[in-house]
Amino acid sequence: MNVRPDTTRTVYDGKLLDVVVEEWNGREREIVVHPGSTAIVAVDGEGCVTLVRQLREPARAELLELPAGTLEEGESPLESARRELAEEVGLRGGSWSELGVFYTTPGFCNERMHVFLAKGVECGSANPEADEQLEVVRWHVSELADRLADLKDAKTIAGLSLFLRSQT
Amino acid sequence: MNVRPDTTRTVYDGKLLDVVVEEWNGREREIVVHPGSTAIVAVDGEGCVTLVRQLREPARAELLELPAGTLEEGESPLESARRELAEEVGLRGGSWSELGVFYTTPGFCNERMHVFLAKGVECGSANPEADEQLEVVRWHVSELADRLADLKDAKTIAGLSLFLRSQT
Questions:
Q1: Closest-CA residue in chain B for A130?
Q2: C-beta of residue A135 within 8 angstroms of C-beta of residue A52
Q3: CA distance A47 to chain B (A)
Q4: Could you write out the DSSP letters of every residue in A30-45?
Q5: Apex B131 CA angle, A36 and B42, nearest 5
Q6: pLDDT tens digits, residue range A50-101?
Q7: Checking CA distances to B124, which of A65, A99, B12, B62 falls within 20 to 30 Å?
Q8: Contacts of B116 (CB under 8 A, 6+ apart)
Q9: ipTM over 0.90
Q10: Could you tell me which chain B residue has the CA closest to the CA of A160?
């Protein structure tokens, strides 16, 4: 199968993301190019998962989500996830494994997200970026299944579902 | 809470999507503007859910996903979902309800996706767009939980998880 476009041209060259228009067998595709990302299901010694509530400007609302972040240049997904978890919510240590890898919206964007499980994380001090105003929320693992439908973020529903499934 | 930007400027004006740069209290945000979308968990009389496998150019790969589509101008989410399900995979009728609404990647995009459950759908003839090459795959409801981790698309993992949760 041909999995390369015939032609590609950059139509927007931004800070976080670019937009390219590709031609595939005579059809044009408008594609958002993203560096990739990670999200973390972090379970502490009390059996709670840490979530963050923050203003998401695109949604015009505060959303409750798994801690997550964008891959930086030269970083592996695991390094990025460990860094984000420590910076955003001050959680360190723990035993790490990968729960899954998925595309967030593959119809028009190449963002690929690695979801990790970090078991037995410990509290340290957080160091969020200056423009991140976060509220930390903890849900006990036993509550997660009942609360899935309250969430408004696909990666959080998907990541917690993969976690719950991995525990059975 | 102020949920409007101080300023907005369009930096890319595309066919499916635009990109705007917004200023929020002195911070710039680069945001992909999308019309919104729907996905459908369609269960037929044999207890099977219909999925579609198709080339996703942004992923450079074929992905297995829930039937889904983009909202068209003036269309309600439910109208759009019924149209997409009939066009893409030829399924009609059934009893419809909403399983959830989520953002696909709210850090940088306003795409909001409505996920519907359509129970008791019936086969008709499909009429996919000329550039859609789809393979239809059916999974029995009893297999879904074990297969979640094989999926590589966030809306499909999230949508099927919300469906499974709604059945308990």
A1: B27
A2: yes
A3: 21
A4: EEEE---EEEEEEEET
A5: 75
A6: 999 999 999 999 999 999 999 999 999 999 999 999 999 999 999 999 999 9
A7: B62
A8: B38, B39, B40, B41, B77, B78, B81, B96, B97, B98, B99
A9: yes
A10: B158
